[in-house]
Structures are given as structure tokens and as C-alpha cells.
Amino acid sequence: MQLNRSTTLPESSSQPENGRLWQRGWYRHARAMASPNFGQRPNGAEIDLLVIHSISLPPGEFGNGHVQRLFGNQLDWDAHPYFQSIRGLRVSSHFFISRAGELWQFVGCGERAWHAGESAYRGRTQCNDDSIGIELEGLEGNTFEAPQYETLASLCAALVQAYPVAHIAGHEHIAPGRKIDPGPGFDWTALQNALALPTRYFPRPA
């Protein structure tokens, strides 16, 4: 499998330009692997929501490159029995953070990644339209690694500087009853403390 940094980045719309950190919505400190699974955001979409997910393929197995293959439409559906249950799935996220804290990017932040599905938050539906999706390698309900929190905090801080982010939520908060990630093993307090953001940015405690 080739997972090398893209040499040509896809065009993106409405991107902040920052010579040190961003190039057309692609983050300098992420390893880029452009996914074909994305679309244009609606006109006037305000990118004000960060959505945190968890993912592992097969569930509970880490570090095998299957998540990257899934987002790149390169997954061998016959490589594991579990993959038959998701055969043909076309999804993506803007970012993916491995257990070791390595950061990957698959979709430019100005584009609409396919991560949220049917969803609603802060009085709006279709969260893919105006959110940025961040996948943590892990299993919903389980804990995450310190390097993942470090990378996540750095990424979120950069996104808050570059976009009008006003909300940070989990998949479970934008699709309650349908999704349960990242789940109770995710430390929201640790993320809030690392970012030093007001409580209003985060989901209300259950």
C-alpha cells in the first residue's frame, strides 16, 4: 500500500491562507493522503464545528493501515471477515490520529468530508456541511493514548485559529442513539484543559 504524502493537493474553496501551517486547507503537520470521498460545502457554510470520532478496522485492532485504505477506497474487502459488513462503504474524515499520535489528513478543510452521516447539532442538521471530522484510532468506550491527546490538542488549537470554530463535540453528540463514539473512554476535560477554551465550546455533561 502506498501512503505517501500527496505531491499535488486538490483545490479547496474558502481556505484561510497561512504560509506556516496551511496550504489550501491542508495542514502542514499532517501526512496527506487525498481521499476521493468528499464534496463541496454549501454556499455560505460556516465551519464552526469540530467532530471527534473513533475508528479501528477491524474493531479493536490498530496500526495496520486499514483505516487509511478505507478512506482512500483501497480496502481489500476480503482481507478480514468483518469487512464484509462494510463492503462498498464510501467514507472519509478530514483527519485521523493513530495510537502513536501520527496525524493524517484526507480531505482539505474547505471541502465536505463524509464523516458525520445523519446528524444535528447547535440547531442545525447535516453536520458534514459545516464541520471538520477528526478520527482517533480506537474503540468506542475504551481509552485513548497520551500521544493522541497531544496531537489532537495541537490540531484543534490550529483549527480554532484558522476557522470560526465555536463547538467541539463527539459523534455521539451529533448523532445520539445512532453513534456512540468516541464514548466514555474519551477525556473531554483533558482536551478542554489543554486548549484552555471556555466550557461553552464543549458538550454538556450527561
Brief overview:
With 206 residues, the chain is α/β, with parallel strands linked by helices. Helix content is 17%, strand content 19%.
Key features?
206 residues; alpha/beta; Lysozyme-like; six-stranded mixed sheet; two-stranded antiparallel ribbon; 12 strands
Q: How would you describe what is shown here?
A:
This protein is α/β, with parallel strands linked by helices and 206 residues long. Helices cover 17% and strands 19% of the residues. A six-stranded mixed sheet has the order 3-7-6-11-5-12. It is globular, with a radius of gyration of 16 Å. The N and C termini lie far apart (42 Å).
Main β-sheet description: 6 strands, mixed
User: How big a fraction of the residues is strand?
Assistant: 15-25%
Total individual domains = 1
The CATH superfamily is known as: Peptidoglycan recognition protein-like
SS-based class: alpha/beta
Query: N- to C-terminal separation?
Result: 42 Å
CATH class: Alpha Beta
Low-confidence stretches: 1-18
Q: Oligomer, anyone? A: single chain
Cα shape = globular
Helix content class:
10-25%
Q: Could you state the order of secondary-structure elements as H and E?
A: EEEEEHEEEEEEHEHH
Q: Quote the average pLDDT.
A: 91
> Within the largest sheet, what's the order of strands?
3-7-6-11-5-12
The CATH architecture comes to 3-Layer(aba) Sandwich
Total strand segments: 12
- Rounded radius of gyration (Å): 16 Å
CATH fold title: Lysozyme-like
| Number of helices in the DSSP assignment | 4
